[in-house]
């Protein structure tokens, strides 16, 4: 039985197609997922992301505990700022990718993926034991609503006095939105400007209603997980379980920059990762654009001109922004000309491109 | 509840078939129920004109943002016409599944006895949703 979010009634009233995602009953789409995707690129979209986990780490040594537990340099983070980071195992394998917000000098919020947060909370608790810090999983208490797209700031500004113009990308600000306390974060997973609003579960429905009304003149529409996936894919953003797994290190995923060897002290994974930092990986995460119209999908083999398997697709979808199917894939080092994806037995040509596929105009 | 026109026949694989009463050339498409379940259709592959098909053969595919499904031949026969418009604009499957979104026409060889009536198909899909 999938777990509903506090917004389940809203999704049902909107006629959403609901789906199980990581044990949660989530809106897959409300109508046309292509229209939802395009709304986020051109105007704004409203997302229920209440399945994400919020784990708080507080105390005099909270920063040191996170420096030890995660690969990032968390103690260097200014209060009010956020960082994309990862938690790895002792072998350097990625257990989850995270965003850490420093809410106050001794208070951090770690946002983890729905499929992983109970494990992340348990790992953080274990890793923080030697520190004067408390780990508290508050995922059940908080809902997360995101407004993403170029009109997001105008829409949100009608509901809050907070200084949105002064809020930088990857920063967070406690504020009041539609009369309710919210943490406003300028973060997202779409490749657009936008905000993520962390609120108490009971405030999610009134907040959603207020945003829907405020966004109407700007073309805001509710958007489901299907649009979220195609948006993040176009933006070249990894999804845990597709591009990231415990079998891969951050270096394997081309995200070695998140591992901060320059921070003081030991951290879980340092010994395993340090020797890898200057070694070029034998496989690389690349972007693929299909020449034809059939879509390369998760798990499909990538083959070279001779038909030998040289890689595997991790995510693929039709791209609204490019008008052609796109995919991310791990591909062996070697010539990139003449590659194809084995789509159910037929080798469909693909072009290897740099990520991301889509970059917004700033 | 998606529409299930009375005058058509259906398969368990969510195809509709028109023209069974004439017994000559049948038109095949996918149902509104299937189109809604798939989401936005982005690619349609239809069989070649002249191809000889047996009932149950995979003769094409319908691909949406999130998934891909085979199209099965509902009857045995020869493909006499395919819908070039739906190949060019696969969204016709979503916007007009029983009309402009038709997929192919087949000249029936043998019978079409195993097809479902509208009532039977309605019972099938109400059990699935």
From TrEMBL, chain A:
Q: What class of enzyme is it?
A: transferase
Q: What is this protein called?
A: Aminomethyltransferase
| Keyword vocabulary terms for this entry | Aminotransferase, Transferase
Q: Locate the GCVT N-terminal domain: which residues?
A: 9-263
Identify the domain of life.
Bacteria
> Which EC numbers characterise this protein's activity in its record?
2.1.2.10
- Reactions this protein catalyses: N(6)-[(R)-S(8)-aminomethyldihydrolipoyl]-L-lysyl-[protein] + (6S)-5,6,7,8-tetrahydrofolate = N(6)-[(R)-dihydrolipoyl]-L-lysyl-[protein] + (6R)-5,10-methylene-5,6,7,8-tetrahydrofolate + NH4(+)
Automatic annotation (TrEMBL), chain B:
Where N6-lipoyllysine occurs, residue numbers? 66
A Pfam family (short name) is: GCV_H
Give GO BP annotations, semicolon-separated: glycine decarboxylation via glycine cleavage system; protein lipoylation
Q: Where is the Lipoyl-binding domain?
A: 25-107
Q: Which cofactor does it need?
A: (R)-lipoate
Indicate the quaternary assembly.
The glycine cleavage system is composed of four proteins: P, T, L and H.
UniProt GO cellular component terms: cytosol; glycine cleavage complex
Superkingdom of origin organism: Bacteria
Q: What is the annotated role of this protein in its UniProt record?
A: The glycine cleavage system catalyzes the degradation of glycine. The H protein shuttles the methylamine group of glycine from the P protein to the T protein.
In terms of SUPFAM superfamilies, this protein maps to: Single hybrid motif (SSF51230)
- Belongs to which family? Belongs to the GcvH family.
| Encoding gene, per UniProt annotation | gcvH
Q: Which UniProt keywords apply?
A: Lipoyl
Q: Give the record's cofactor note, including how many are bound.
A: Binds 1 lipoyl cofactor covalently.
Name of the protein described by the UniProt record: Glycine cleavage system H protein
């Amino acid at each position: 039985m999938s777990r509903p979010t506090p917004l389940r009634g809203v999704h049902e009233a909107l006629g959403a197609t609901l789906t199980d995602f990581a044990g949660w009953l989530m809106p897959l789409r409300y109508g046309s997922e292509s229209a939802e995707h395009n709304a986020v690129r051109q105007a704004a979209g409203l997302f229920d992301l209440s399945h994400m986990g919020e784990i708080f780490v507080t105390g005099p040594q909270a920063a040191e505990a996170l420096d030890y537990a995660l690969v990032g340099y968390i103690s260097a983070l200014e209060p009010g700022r956020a960082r994309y980071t990862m938690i790895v195992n002792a072998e350097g394998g990625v257990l989850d990718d995270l965003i850490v917000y420093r809410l106050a000098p001794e208070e951090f919020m770690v946002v983890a993926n729905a499929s992983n947060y109970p494990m992340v909370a348990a790992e953080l608790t274990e890793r923080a034991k030697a520190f004067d810090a408390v780990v508290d999983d508050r995922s059940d208490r908080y809902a997360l609503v995101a407004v993403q797209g170029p009109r997001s700031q105008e829409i949100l500004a009608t509901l809050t006095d907070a200084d949105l113009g002064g809020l930088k990308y990857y920063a967070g600000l406690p504020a009041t939105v539609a009369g309710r306390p919210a943490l406003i974060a300028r973060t997202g997973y779409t490749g657009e400007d936008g905000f993520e609003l962390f609120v108490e579960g009971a405030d999610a429905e009134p907040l959603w209603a207020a945003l829907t009304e405020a966004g109407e003149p700007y073309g805001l529409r509710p958007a489901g997980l299907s649009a979220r996936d195609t948006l993040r894919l176009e933006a070249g953003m990894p999804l845990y379980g597709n591009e990231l797994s415990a079998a891969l290190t951050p270096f394997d995923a081309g995200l070695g920059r998140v591992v901060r060897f320059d921070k003081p002290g030991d951290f879980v994974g340092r010994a395993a990762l340090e020797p890898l930092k200057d070694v070029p990986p034998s496989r690389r995460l690349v972007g693929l654009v299909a020449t034809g119209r059939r879509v390369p999908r998760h798990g499909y083999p990538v083959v070279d001109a001779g038909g030998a398997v040289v890689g595997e697709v991790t995510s693929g979808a039709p791209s609204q922004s490019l008008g052609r199917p796109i995919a991310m894939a791990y591909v062996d080092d070697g010539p990139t000309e003449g590659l194809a994806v084995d789509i159910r037995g037929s080798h469909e040509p693909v072009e290897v491109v740099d990520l991301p596929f889509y970059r917004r105009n700033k | 509840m998606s529409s299930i026109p009375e005058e058509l026949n259906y398969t368990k694989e969510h195809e509709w078939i028109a023209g069974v009463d004439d017994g000559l050339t049948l038109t095949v498409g996918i149902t509104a129920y299937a189109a809604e379940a798939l989401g936005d259709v982005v690619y349609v592959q239809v069989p070649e004109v002249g191809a000889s098909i047996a009932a149950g053969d995979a003769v094409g595919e319908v691909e949406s943002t999130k998934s891909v499904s085979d199209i099965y031949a509902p009857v045995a026969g020869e493909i006499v016409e395919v819908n070039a418009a739906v190949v060019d604009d696969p969204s016709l499957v979503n916007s007009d599944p029983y009309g402009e979104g038709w997929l192919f026409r087949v000249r029936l060889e043998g019978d079409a006895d195993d097809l479902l009536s509208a009532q039977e198909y309605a019972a099938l899909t109400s059990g699935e949703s």
